[in-house]
């Protein structure tokens, strides 16, 4: 799927504005409407009319594909849980061959399984969203802020000729958003069952489940959703570090290399692309979301996205200090006592915000 997207991107490089309605990216007249537009909603609603959550729930259930979306969400959640326990079963027979970690909690089979499934999840999400960012980066606003009422797969309406590339892109983001939200739901249940959760961990996950459901239940903000989800690109390297950094000198080189890749991806997707996406959303906050989105949901998303961006900058100095030492050691500058041990235990939870007694996996990074 990732290879297919890169092929699409190569095609778009020759005609980046072909995604716009009419093929010219015009923002005037009817083409200034999101690709879903009001025609996808059989009702007219203002922020005030949909302010109450109860009223919104009654309205959203009338959308095309709402029941299918819930069914897909349930299936994805069950699939993630099943994959977690499959990994756990495989690890039970294989962990004996691993070098033991000096940290007791890192020898727990469930803790290790959470890191491994987090890697699988992050790779899947990144393959869907990173190419989509490149595809939608130069698209007109009516594409980047498009919305549709077909909730099952976020299929653009047939009367808007967006082209195959955009149709694939927005549905890929919708799929990634559903898989991400389901993974977060599954992670909450798994962590509670196996004692891997803390109060702040639960709050963190509930916030992201809420944001994911809001965006996905309106099939909106494909560009911003892709930017947010693409932050998972750094997670596989972080999870690998968490798995092996305390398992002996044999992993020292791989820990250092993964640390460098992790910090580079952190810079690109969390400190560059994420603030850009946040700025774009705030600059267009009055028109980015369809008028059928309740005000409380719109305000929650704006604040959540801004807070998420601020958190990345809060954690970066600690991350730079930790992995900068490894970079100096790897390049042979000497004087570094880096051994894969973070300067502070908080680096375990720089994304997951979960400094509990039994350390959480970086797979909760969002």
From TrEMBL:
Residues 341-366 are annotated as: Disordered. It holds the Pfam family TRAM_LAG1_CLN8. The keyword Magnesium does not apply. It is a multi-pass membrane protein. The chain crosses the membrane at residues 69-88, 109-137, 166-185, 192-215, 221-243, 255-273, 300-320. Residues 349-366 have a biased composition (Polar residues). GO terms for cellular component: endoplasmic reticulum; membrane. It is found in: Membrane. Residues 107-328 form the TLC domain. Keywords: Membrane, Transmembrane, Transmembrane helix. One of its GO terms (biological process) is lipid homeostasis. This is TLC domain-containing protein.
